[in-house]
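Section handout 9: paired folding examples.
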Amino acid sequence: MKEISRLPNHIAFIMDGNGRWAAKHDLPRLEGHKAGLKATRSVIKHLGEYNIKYVTLYSFSTENWNRPKSEVSGLLKILEKSLNKELLELHKRGVRIRHLGHLDRLPKHLKRAIVDAVELTQGNTKMILSLAFDYGGRLEILDAVRNILTDNISPQNIDERLFSNYLYTVDLPEVDLVIRTGGDLRISNFLLWQSAYSEYYFTNVLWPDFNAEELGKALTDYGKRQRRFGRI
């Protein structure tokens, strides 16, 4: 494991490239998603070795519903199976699982798996692993506005701290580092509020190929950056 001078407290991942990885290996797209989950398992383990406290994974976006139904159905089944398979091991390692996003559109078995994972691990403190299922940054902000209006908060009492308390990520620190694999240079509606001052790391490496070495490169790059937050 690399020695890094300064590590982020909260890392968020846009895990892109599963489909292209499958095409590259002449495999069905769902095989790419399975390979991506193996990479996810490995990355979480290595993040634990670096003692990273907060990790957020962009698992399924509000826009992903627009993919072919067969792919959506297969992907959600893979996610459910993986969560059930990994849960006890994550629990043993002190990982607390949180859900970001909506649950109502998810299949009932996946919804149940998420709820069970959140309940089982709620007392864990080693790592806070947030899974963004059916998540969209714009929807999160709209939900916050609706709930503020429902609570009849006076406009003059609304500041950044209050607004943050109405987001899905309440009690989570802002994101220090966003890592996106797959070569695209965009944030795809992910953690729009929470990443206002995040550092971004983009790599052409496809997510199933993102390993301990690639993670070390990203963390080393982060450690060299100066974060001024608008100051000199």
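Moving on to protein 2 of 2.
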Amino acid sequence: METNTVIGKTAAEKTGKRRPSGPRSKLEAGFSLLELMIAMFIMIILLSIALPAYQRTMQHARETVLKENLWQMRRAIDQYASDKGKLPQSLDDLVTDKYLQEKPVDPITEKTEWNEVMGEDTLSGENAQGLKDVKSLAEGTDSENKQYTEY
């Protein structure tokens, strides 16, 4: 008598159905909700760390550019005064006479508008007024709690 019992075979082998030959079957393809949630939480944590660091870096860069622009304009005022023997009347005079290529942009306000501080021109003997200093029109404070208008 012949028996049809198979010993040591899996249920799929007993029924004759083959298991798909891939890492996952069609039912297991894709990500579970739990896996997606974990991935989202990891991304949120990384963004919560990276975003403030990026914003601080950008703010520091704007402050550095503002200081450099003010230094360049003040240097141009001094150069103009020593060359011409009088103070310029505005930043436009510095651009017209090629001491500056163009009016710099205030990186905080993103405009080319500056507070032009006028004062007595001690270089000319006529008690004339001239551009003594340039300051930012930006409101607020920098990362060291110094007013932008005090730069």
